[in-house]
Amino acid sequence: MLRAAASRRARAAIRRLSSAAAYPAAVGARRQPPLDEGDWSYYREWWGEDEGPGEGAHTVFRRHSEHGNGVVSVSAYPASLPANDQRTIIERWLQERNERIHPDSTGTDQFKILGYQWRVMRFNDHTRQSVAKVMACYRSLGDAGIYLMQQPHCLAVPYVKSMVSSGLTALPSCSYDIHQAASGQNNMKVLCIGHGGGSLPLFVASKFRGAVVHIVEIDPVVASASIESMGFPSLPVEGLPVESTQPADGNELLWGGIHDRLFLHIADAEDFVANDSNVYDIVFIDAYDGDDIFPRKLWDADGAFLKNLEKKVHPDHGTVVVNLHSDSELSVAGVDDSSRAQSILPLGKHVSQVCRAYKQHFGLAFTAAVPWLCNITLVACRDKAIAAGARLGLSRRDFVLGKLLSKSNMVEHALDLPFPCLQYIKNCFTLVE
User: Fold this and answer.
1) What are the entry keywords (predicted)?
2) In this structure, what are the phi and psi dihedrals at residue 316, rounded to the nearest 5 degrees?
């Protein structure tokens, strides 16, 4: 979730953003990354106003939620990228896929791209829950309808890049073979708690051919919004009434099997984890409601959720990544000014408790501050794997950070990431004690 209160920092930081995108790399160690269509310097295209969508936006989805999220809406904004020459390449790719799926199709049945948009999901017309870039296209012949495809390579919000960078770098630091998972030689089990627009599970499924991704979302309205309006694949979900206008062959044409490795569950996370039989390599948790609340049961050290999650994460390299957003580390007891206390984000009073709870259950935990936003990425993993080896006189903190940084370039290469992991891992890196 992206808190609108962070806009003060976003406006002031734009000069720093463009330079951060070109973060310097070790000499001889860096490949030329692909263009990052989700670079934070494009945020002006989709940020809108603090209290709503802003000029140039139009609402494409609006529905009331019965699960604490208030009004769930999706607004659309024009996107400047990709350029026209790239659109021609993508149209050719769509045509080739269509001919493989429909061998009897005529050569005159061409695909045309209507355009690209940013789609922003909000709760109660205020809090930005997620952002995705969506492509719309159609066939030049026939009236099959409009194909809507979320761009899985485009992560528009820094906290998602921070979760990806920190979590996927922790995996090989715990001796997990990320190359084999990326190539599909090994299976990779992933759990995403909190769906939003679906950008994180789509990114992981598209980058890892061996990934099977289970997504748990408590609110069917949020899931419907992602499928109907944010270009997420039309997955069969029990109890989810999706009014998709996507053509019948949309999943096969656009996703080429990626959708077959995505499983969306409408369920309470605590109940799902208690009854699930899978053992996961990595778990991503980003679960906030319309009041900006991260449910206590998801971070209660003595609660059923963490006790069960500990059993469902791989005992050697299992990694859990949590998005925490907070603009304060003040405890409730330490806040004297009531007006100041009210301005603190709800989780801000409990960040340290959350971090210690996850460390207690998984062995080692560290945090990294997300650049430019009121977010912190928490990573918890098995300490025996990541902290193993001689420390060469280094502190435990520096040893763990060095091990993570030594894997960051490899992760970027293996997944062909359009952004550097290094800047997200290093930013205010802290070991949880």
Assistant:
1) Methyltransferase, Transferase
2) -100, -45
